[in-house]
Design brief:
By secondary structure, the protein is mostly helical. The protein folds into three domains: 104 residues, no CATH class; 75 residues, no CATH class; 98 residues, Chitinase A, domain 3 (Roll). It has 13 helices and five strands. The strands form two sheets. Strands 3-5-4 form a three-stranded antiparallel sheet. A two-stranded antiparallel sheet has the order 1-2. Strand 4 and strand 5 form a beta hairpin. It is extended, with a radius of gyration of 26 Å. It starts with a helix and ends in a 10-residue tail after the last helix.
């Protein structure tokens, strides 16, 4: 009965969203079914089904007809399982472990928490979309929404539908991992300096290879215009458009420690990062407009540092959880 219900639901989603979304939706529905069965969360915001639609579609086992030849729901089910079962079962295993560990530690995530995190993410996504148009092009944003058959309410609903199903396990893992990490005074002081302390004004050029970076550095030290080279050669296009000018950074941040010793007008050596090879020019330093006492922003700093620590800890924590579990994945066989 559960199997039939599952594929009825899957068919509805396929018909509504198109075949390009099949893989992602198949995996998510499998995850939801497993979690519902293991921790009884079917009544939560994680997984809500339109039962009326399911009943309507259950009346017909034929999902398509090609030149008179019928394609049945069973054929569709077999194809989906054969094509996507490995990815699906791996996600289900991980989330089942998460649910089991949460039950063991008596940790829950409420509908309210899911809704709040979902709304926060949707707010950020909507602002990101709007920012591409700029303040002066608000009308262009609204016109594009109309062309696509959307308004902001519909856009937010669509975005929420995409992210909501992943929020529950995300919040659950954060709560579990939070119990294993601590926030140190040193981390809090560094976070305070990064957000509320002195900032360094920089220009940058980013390229792919050390050879290209060294060649550009040689040109700059020979008198070439840094801003002009940044506009022409830098891979970081937002800063390149401004002659390499970056947003102010903290001298205790990732790049800050590398450039803190330099003075206005200085050119750094080539500095490697995940994004490529950088050359920086120091334009000066700036002081915060308002100095906030450390104790007044302590709760905010604790939240920021804790989030960073949880993110760093999540990989090792989950690996340990997997290694300690008795898992038999028969799909691999």
């Amino acid at each position: 009965m559960l199997t039939a219900w599952f594929f009825q639901l899957l068919l509805i989603v396929i018909l509504r969203r198109g075949q390009k979304a099949v893989m992602k939706i198949f995996v998510k529905i499998l995850v939801c079914l497993t979690l519902c069965a293991s921790v009884s969360i079917c009544d939560s915001a994680l997984f809500k089904v339109n039962a009326a639609d399911s009943k309507d579609n259950a009346k017909n086992d034929v999902v398509a007809v090609v030149n008179g030849e019928k394609i049945t729901r069973d054929q569709l089910a077999e194809f989906l399982i054969e094509s996507f079962s490995q990815q699906g079962i791996e996600i289900i295993i991980k989330r089942t472990l998460l649910a089991q560990e949460a039950k063991k530690q008596n940790i829950i995530v409420s509908d309210k928490e899911v809704a709040e995190r979902t709304n926060r993410i949707v707010d950020l996504e909507v602002e990101k979309i709007k920012s591409k148009y700029g303040e002066k092009n608000k009308e262009a944003f609204e016109m594009d929404m109309v062309k696509m058959g959307y308004d902001e309410t519909k856009l937010r609903k669509k975005l929420a539908g995409r992210v909501e199903i992943d929020i529950w396990p995300q919040l659950l893992s954060e709560k579990l991992i939070k119990k294993t990490v601590t926030v140190t005074d040193e981390q809090l002081k560094q976070a305070y300096a990064e957000k509320y302390g002195e900032k360094v004004l920089l220009r940058q050029i980013v390229v792919k290879t050390p050879e290209e970076a060294e060649a550009l550095l040689k040109q700059i030290r020979a008198g070439a215009d840094f801003a002009a080279l940044a506009k022409d050669r830098s891979l970081d296009r937002p800063s390149a458009a401004k002659g390499g000018l970056m947003n102010p950074i903290s001298p205790v941040g990732p790049f800050g420690e590398s450039i803190a010793k330099f003075k206005k007008g200085d050119i750094t050596d080539v500095i490697k990062s995940r994004g490529g090879f950088h050359i920086f020019k120091v334009e000066g330093k700036t002081q915060p407009e308002e100095i906030k006492p450390f104790k007044d922003v302590l709760p905010e700093l604790e939240e920021v540092v804790m989030a960073v620590n949880i993110k760093r800890r999540s990989g090792p924590w989950f690996l340990k959880l997997m290694e300690s579990a008795d898992i038999k994945n028969y799909i691999k066989e």
